[in-house]
Predict the structure.
Amino acid sequence: MSLISLEKITVGYGNNIILKDLDLKVEKGQLVSLLGPSGCGKTTTLRLIAGFLDLQSGKFIFDGKDYSHIPVHKRNFGFVFQSYALFPHLNVFENVAFGLKLRKVDKSEIKNRVEEMLKIVDLLDYANRFPAELSGGQRQRVALARALVIKPDLLLLDEPLSNLDAKLRVKMRVEIRKIQQELGITTVYVTHDQEECFSISDKVAVMNNGIIEQMDEPARIYKYPATEFVARFVGFENFIDLQLISKDDKTLVLKAKNNTEFVVDNLDLYKGIEPKKGAIRPDDLKISSIGSHEGSNAINGQVLVRTFLGRDYQYEVKTELGNFIVNHEALEIFEVGEKVSLYFPKDKIILVK
Amino acid sequence: MKKYSFYLLLAPGFIFLFVFAILPLIMVISGSFTTEEGITISRYIDFFKDGYYTTILLRTMKLSLIATIVAAVFGFPTAYYISKTNINKRGLYIAFAVFPMLTSPVVRSFSWMVILGKYGIVNNLLTKIGIIKEPLSLLYNEFSIVIGFVYLFMPLMILSLVGVLENIDKDLVAAAESLGATRFKAFMKVVFPLSIPGLIVGSVLVFTGSLTAYTTPQLLGGTKSRVLATVMYQNAMTLFDWDTAAVVATVMIVVTIVISGLINSFARRLDSRR
Amino acid sequence: MHKTSKGLKIFAFLVYFFLLAPLVIIVFASFGPDKSLTFPPRGFSLKWMANIFKVEMFRKTFLISIKISVIGTLIALVLGIPAAYALSRYNFRGKSFFNGIFLSPALIPGIVLGFSLLKYLVIYFKLPIYTSLLIGHVIIIIPYIIRVISSSLSNFDYSIEEASMSLGANKVKTFFTVVLPNIRSGVIAAFILAFINSFNNVPVSLFLTGPGLSTLPIQMLIYVEYNFDPTIAALSVILMAMTAVLMFIIEKTLGLSYFAK
């Protein structure tokens, strides 16, 4: 049984529905990320789990119990805010001890637990400082310590790293993952940064406009996006409308608008799904001089734009089927206006809804 | 229940104000319209027919208006100056402008008695220099009341204006000048129009404050120059004519509401023109 | 930033002179030895300062005024802080109506309020005059509390409330342990501002005084109407010094630029 089960959750009123019939399951001990652009509903989902928001319909089951209407202060979930929300009038020690004091924990035990937690986040020397005296990264760690010290049943993080500079972000996400795994605490993590999300999560739920487009392990989402939205999110920039003609166990044959045939490897996850588009990454698409590829999985085009990326050049190529972005190593260069051939390897095309 | 808990937060204060402030006020106003025979405006007719009272009403309005204009004319440049000072020093400037407001109106009016009195500073100075032989009667007339009002409410006008002027983007004047306006023109065409909301707020405060003030006209006006507030007190506590006092009170409230309403709607019309 | 013109600076300073000179004159006059108030004073004497304490009514009503204003402010804080919190934090139907009601005492002319309270609380409902005086002061104090506390809460980061709740505190506990401590300076400033305005009030106290009950401003008013000597100047100086001290405290807690609304 999953630890968290959101069942057909709807949040919002009238014209302003934020989440509609959302289903989400999170297993114990996992770090699950909610990933998506701003406005996709990931923060709403997180705040719903925390209890800061009410659901209009559906159920939130936690550890077998219905938590849908339990007030925030009774849920025992640790929440880390994007702005950290440290209490300005309390020092670091008191901030972290806040939840323990409320639970009427014994004074000496508070001291032990708080100091141990501060040691874990490497802030023991700052126990007497006030939030105003700390750097962004330090405040972040205090917020984390404060949420963890109460031994919560669940850890919820709302874009905890987005206010930090790039280097710190990379360092901190590793720290958070390490602590999460050491403590074995189930965690839901909200972010809009794909790289951050994929590097630390057990599972990722990609969200768009209030629905989950795909939920899977990061590697599988990266290799096999299920929808156009997810594909774009993980770096597929080229899409072709395709119609299914025939299929067998090994391959699928599809047709594009200009009757070009595309042969694509058949994957298990295509079972029962009606593919609408083919997607391919700029790195996987092959560009060569005109005439080198004919027949299926190939089209001709003309170079519109060339951009230098360092190791590669990136080309925008205009074709009958639309414009495509393709990367090619700098050793071989194509000029603007040059006519070229584009080849789509059958194992690199991913079919999406 | 969680959704309506904030009404609980409002309840004690609201009930207190309603029972002890709003209700008695309503009763006074409605009482002025009631006699043993029923609802009547006879008292108001008597009030407005009586030259004594209409003189006082007009005088009070006139003096309040003059005070408002004087406060605006002198307060505006001062507020403008303050808004351009260094932000670190500004607090100090504001403090000095606000300090008089925190002293008792008795103290403030008293100081002008000292200055304007028959043996007061102005007269002493003028006699010493030799400009006059007999002391001037500067006190206990409309002149001294206006000075008193201005002294009392100028800080309010200044504060209202500084608030608004501070929020005007400094670059706007620079932009106007870069387009060819002189500093004065830039002020008139950019700063002044944008500061009108503050001017309106300040004017309403000064006018209504002066209209309803008691201490200052009592000390500086003497018996010859009564205003609404002093005549109301006289009716209530000296003559025990509570009915007339209630009428005066209602007139005061109505005039206050009408004038503020007029000024505010005038302000809104100016706003919508932009 | 443009250099402000000399003319404007001189004008502004003249206005400041107008505002502050009368008070300075009183300070000097209070130390003059003569009964008549002259300026510049012809000597230095503390006898008028001492005289203050000889006037029994000043001593008695000073204490009464302090009591009324302190108790009144405390009551107003209890009524006003939750209201200001509700008005700042939430959006709800009728918000502007409630906002208007809470700020209305500032719009009602003081003497009209005093008169209404006398007529209905004291005479009609036979409330004791002391209670009515206290009620009157609470009424005029409330708008100050609402304005200052609302201003303090206008930039409040309410996510610390959510943090507190997520750590196990219910709404009431959160209010007292997390919200209040962080508007402490606002509460202090509100207290001082409210206290000063209550202490100095004339119109409301005017009607609600009687045998055995009066406030210091009222006594000063009566004194001035019959005696014109520097005693009042001396008392004014002491009150001004008190005010200056309180203003200093406000500056240390809230910062004086608060005053520009």
Notes: Residues 4-229 of chain A form a domain with the Rossmann fold fold (CATH 3.40.50.300). The mean pLDDT of chain A is 91. The longest strand of chain A covers residues 16-26.
